Amino acid sequence: MTTRLAPALPIVGPVALGVILMLVGDFMFALNDAMGKWLVASYSVGEVLLVRSVGAFLILGPLLLRQGKAALFAAERPGLQITRAAFATADTGLFYAAVATMPLADVMTFYMAGPIYVAAISHIFLGEKVGWRRWLAISVGFVGVVIALRPSAASLSLASLFALAGSLSFAMTLVLARILRKTSDATLVGWQTLAALVAGVVFSVTTWETPSALDLGALLLLGVVSCSAHMLITRSLKLAPASTLAPLQYTLLLWAAVFGFAFFGNLPTPQVLFGAAIIIVAGLFLFHRQRVVDDGVPPKTVPRTLH
């Protein structure tokens, strides 16, 4: 009698698993952004920064303990570590200040221009070679930002300037992460989370409102969700090429539009959508050219933030 073996279940390969983890991480970042918008309607940006940083340390704490305190306090180039932490804190704080009054998708449109800023800044400060095709894409991307910004006296708002400044801070965070690529992710995120905690203490001194038990849980969960998303994306980059994963970041814009409409009744304006389309096309072309020229996008060009 012949025994028939059941067909083996297909095993997800590392690249496919990396794609899945990236998509889940991006979804969690978008969920974190929606939670942040809901919370800054009731609490100051400083208070949100403070409590969410405590929540993030619930995830980061064990990781930092496992790698030892020497990795945190003896990190390379401490001056640049502090500068990066300052930019990362500005990025997060300005993001929350912007979403307090702007639709999520509108704010995310500015942040989707991050890779465009990174390409330009890397050429200026890091001496990275950028060919004419990528300069053209950078210029087109800036046009998309200007269209989304709507820079007229009647439409230009303080919130949109917060979003623009935050996205530039985000780009500087990525550029400095390239320079500090020998530093572990846990150390990088540990320093920026500590900086956000300190900034939160300073800016919430005069604006503190004791949250309810439900809101306190939501504020702590904000840090847990964002830190978990970061770890998922970090793991995805170890499983799949960054050039494969980088374009998936634009799902953040899709989720921002979905969550913005579902939870806040906001829809991006046609002008913002048009600007976003230009930014996405320019960004995808930059990723393509990076892959052609360098045979792979450096992992640090993939946005990984703790919004």
> Which radius of gyration do the C-alpha atoms yield?
20 Å
What helical percentage do the residues reach?
A: over 70%
**Percent of residues in beta strands?**
under 5%
Globally, the shape reads globular
Low-confidence region ranges: 296-301
Average pLDDT figure? 83
Protein name: DMT family transporter
GO cellular component, one term: membrane
Organism: Jiella endophytica
Domain EamA: 17-149, 159-286
Give a written overview of the molecule.
By secondary structure, this protein is an all-alpha fold. It has one domain. It is built from 13 helices and no strands. The protein is globular. One of its GO terms (cellular component) is membrane.
Structure described in brief:
The chain crosses the membrane at residues 12-31, 43-65, 108-126, 135-153, 159-177, 189-208, 214-233, 245-264, 270-287. The protein is built from 13 helices and no strands. It is mainly alpha-helical.
Characteristics:
single chain, 307 residues, mainly alpha, 13 helices, EamA_dom, transmembrane helix, transmembrane, membrane
Secondary structure blueprint with pairings:
Layout lengths: L13 H26 L5 H23 L1 H5 L4 H22 L4 H8 L2 H12 L6 H18 L8 H22 L5 H20 L8 H27 L2 H4 L5 H14 L5 H25 L13
